[in-house]
Amino acid sequence: MLNVLIADDEMHFRNYMNWVLDWESLGMRICASCKNGEEVLKAVQEEHVHIALLDINMPGMDGLTLAERLKQEDQELLVVFVTGYSEFEYARRAVKMGADEYILKPFSPEELMEVMGKLRLKLLKRQEEDEQKKIDHAIVRDELLKRLIRLETGESQGELSGMLENLGVCFPGNSFLVSVMEIDNIYQMRKNQEDISLHKFCIKNMAEEVLEGKGRAHLIFSEYEDRMVSIFNYDEGFPLEEEVFPAWEKLLVLLEEFFSFTVTIGMGCTKKGGGQIAQAYQDARKALGEKFLLGTGRSILYDKERGKRTSADYYRAELNDRLLHALRKQDKAEVCTVLGEMAATVKERHLAQDYACMAMSGMMSICLSYILEMNGNIEEIYGKGFQPYTNLYNQPSLDEGIAFLKESLEKAMDAFKNTYSRRGIEISGQVEEYIQEHFSDPELTVEDVAAGVYLDSSYIRRVVSRQLGCTVSDLILRVRMNEAKKLLDKGDVTVSQAAELVGFGEPGYFSKCFKKSFGVSPKAYREK
């Protein structure tokens, strides 16, 4: 409801304005009726006024001076001058000075209705623009936070923090606890993204509520694969075990009590300094991954020693990235390669069935996430009552589990093969081919690649992101890492030589990227 203020020194006019229009039908109400400027200034302190109808010629403070005072206090306030013919030139001058409308006495209800209708549309448009700005702000904020926790190669922690500060996101404390939340059995429980989004909205609100007033700052946002991430910022010495850990337990109890689902929370080791957020996030993901062994509907604190004892960190995370990349490209051959490498790793390490099922379940989650990403319906693709995780755990052997997973992945790809962009395939293929031919150039940039395929750089960024699920910079790095791995497999080059051959001028940075990609340093990989 829009609040309208009337200011005129004539009582009969003020009374007339109360009933001349059906204000409620316009989505408006008269919130104040004033006889002079002093009453107006008092009224705007007590009510949020959207539109002020002011008489120019009032005793004491005239309408022009009053309008100037009102605009100084609230630039969003709309001012309409209601004036007689003798004051018409004043009204015209006032509009030039910033007043929004004027209307001449005497006026008909229709004339007033027209003016108020215009102002209502103006306010509604402004509100829509403000809401869109908030939505855009939230989208940009969440994307920056996703980049902050993953800290991809080439990203600067300081630069991302600065961009977040420009959006009003600050971390005044010196310590961090990063938690990753996941709805248990999410794909078996719900069929569409709308339901999942509603559940995540509930989790976000309740998580904010249980931690309200604690620490220095708390942010919670959606991550990939329908997970949610919490970054809790606090000062050293803050009692986490007494404040945050019980709050998470309370959240789990509330969610199970009021909703038909449970949530598992993985918590990383506490870290000092903003530069440690990405590592804390990785620890939290590892902790969350242990729910296959420890059970769902609980909070799990990352334990480095427990990870060593259980070999829970054996799994090559890059396989999941490659799998999602292959699904988006409709590359069935690469899907088979990824599955083969995963199976080989399980067999070579003689891992127990639980670990094999954990790896396959992770890939099944990627598959189902891809379907939702493509706005697909899981039930339409796999049939009613599809229970992928139960089926995986019930497979009598690794080979049969791999076969079931392969069939599920191929069905997902087949469901969307007709919607896959042929032009996008062609462009992304050209980009990959150019990078493959020029990866050894240490000065290779996205702009160079764009020029090489005769397209605009912003355009190929969008195409590659949509078709391959990564940035062009990610693609350059991926090619360089794969080529470096091939060189080290041959064993006839040093780590420094391999770095130079694939376009890295700094061996230390090359080693960092290699370890992030393959989980092992290039030196250790070469010597294995």
TrEMBL record:
<dbReference type="GO" id="GO:0003700">
    <property type="term" value="F:DNA-binding transcription factor activity"/>
</dbReference>
<dbReference type="InterPro" id="IPR001789">
    <property type="entry name" value="Sig_transdc_resp-reg_receiver"/>
</dbReference>
<feature type="domain" description="Response regulatory">
    <location>
        <begin position="3"/>
        <end position="120"/>
    </location>
</feature>
<dbReference type="Pfam" id="PF00072">
    <property type="entry name" value="Response_reg"/>
</dbReference>
<keyword id="KW-0902">Two-component regulatory system</keyword>
<dbReference type="InterPro" id="IPR011006">
    <property type="entry name" value="CheY-like_superfamily"/>
</dbReference>
<comment type="function">
    <text>May play the central regulatory role in sporulation. It may be an element of the effector pathway responsible for the activation of sporulation genes in response to nutritional stress. Spo0A may act in concert with spo0H (a sigma factor) to control the expression of some genes that are critical to the sporulation process.</text>
</comment>
<dbReference type="InterPro" id="IPR009057">
    <property type="entry name" value="Homeodomain-like_sf"/>
</dbReference>
<keyword id="KW-0805">Transcription regulation</keyword>
<keyword id="KW-0963">Cytoplasm</keyword>
<dbReference type="InterPro" id="IPR020449">
    <property type="entry name" value="Tscrpt_reg_AraC-type_HTH"/>
</dbReference>
<dbReference type="InterPro" id="IPR018060">
    <property type="entry name" value="HTH_AraC"/>
</dbReference>
<dbReference type="GO" id="GO:0005737">
    <property type="term" value="C:cytoplasm"/>
</dbReference>
<dbReference type="InterPro" id="IPR051552">
    <property type="entry name" value="HptR"/>
</dbReference>
<feature type="domain" description="HTH araC/xylS-type">
    <location>
        <begin position="429"/>
        <end position="528"/>
    </location>
</feature>
<keyword id="KW-0597">Phosphoprotein</keyword>
<dbReference type="Pfam" id="PF17853">
    <property type="entry name" value="GGDEF_2"/>
</dbReference>
<dbReference type="Pfam" id="PF12833">
    <property type="entry name" value="HTH_18"/>
</dbReference>
<dbReference type="GO" id="GO:0000160">
    <property type="term" value="P:phosphorelay signal transduction system"/>
</dbReference>
<dbReference type="InterPro" id="IPR041522">
    <property type="entry name" value="CdaR_GGDEF"/>
</dbReference>
<dbReference type="InterPro" id="IPR018062">
    <property type="entry name" value="HTH_AraC-typ_CS"/>
</dbReference>
<dbReference type="GO" id="GO:0043565">
    <property type="term" value="F:sequence-specific DNA binding"/>
</dbReference>
<feature type="modified residue" description="4-aspartylphosphate">
    <location>
        <position position="55"/>
    </location>
</feature>
<keyword id="KW-0804">Transcription</keyword>
<keyword id="KW-0238">DNA-binding</keyword>
<protein>
    <recommendedName>
        <fullName>Stage 0 sporulation protein A homolog</fullName>
    </recommendedName>
</protein>
